[in-house]
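ligand=adenosine-5'-triphosphate
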Amino acid sequence: MTGRDAATRSHALLEISDLAVAYGGHPVIDGLSWQVGGSGSLVTAVLGPSGCGKSTLLRAVAGLEQPTRGVVRFDGQDLAGVEVHRRDFGVVFQDGQLFGGRSVASNIGYGLRMRRWSRRRIAGRVTELLDVVGLPGYEKRSVDTLSGGQAQRVALARALAPHPRLLLLDEPLAALDRRLRDELAVEISEIVRAAGVPTVVVTHDHAEAATMADEIAVMRDGAMVQVATPSHLWRRPVDEWTAKFLGVTTVVDAQLRAGIADTVLGEIVLDLPDGSRRLGLRPESVEVMGPAGADDSGTGTATVVLVAELPAGPRVRIETAVGEIDAVADESVAIGDRVRIRLVPERVAVIG
Ligand SMILES: Nc1ncnc2c1ncn2[C@@H]1O[C@H](COP(=O)(O)OP(=O)(O)OP(=O)(O)O)[C@@H](O)[C@H]1O
């Protein structure tokens, strides 16, 4: 399967219907239905809070957990009864789970030896993959001497080696520090796209999901609540829980008339039908404009209660009609200033 196939395929690659998985009789996933890859996306993220069942879902797709109900299909084939190693899926876990005490080459070649590839062919594939993951020449190194980031690169190479039909990544960056996570998220995304392997990546970090994936499935309590592109998710979260999980800190009511939404924080142009809506605000959704004055029609007013000078510009906390909220400022303001505020249309989330 190549990226191009993914773009032209009309049916979903992975189809899950009414899936249920339980541990000791306690359901963790109950009635989950989800289709992956039908819209042409190659990398899909499953994003949800800790404990919502993301890893369990991935393990059920890999064949490592037995569903109590439901169907998992891959490319039209029902996977019930298909053993883990016959699914041809590559899996990478949070801590890589490399075989300790062995060399990098031995780890990457593992699945190829199982498939009875010749030594020469394995050696060629290992070298090729070490180039792909940025570790050329590492064949003989013991995996016990690798850094966390290097170990995850080797785990990725091992998963990609047998040309899997699907790659399943379970929080592959969770054990790494922030800077390395950001760097490796971009790298992994580039690597799987270049290889053209459809990928599902589980994460609880929405920046990571947006960096890596074309499509994000938001999961809550064992079910999918919304599946959309990252930009659609930020702008149109399906409900208040999803909006807040995605970084919305304040929700305000709006009355729309002729493309203008009226809120207690001022007016905003929104191309939506007349009626009542709820708007979700993140700090970047609210801009502090300058001193409040005689002509404040259409804008809200607020009082500055805290100022933090961040590299990207001042971040301020302001007292408004809906309580204290965080906002961004173009120019310097001081604690106690009475200021005008503006809602930024493209950075406001419309809920529902
Ligand atoms: N082997 C197991 N036996 C019993 N309960 C389990 C097992 N694995 C997971 N659970 C429970 O199932 C629920 C979902 O766990 P899961 O690991 O799938 O969630 P998650 O969304 O991946 O969480 P996290 O982001 O913290 O890894 C949790 O309440 C967890 O305690």
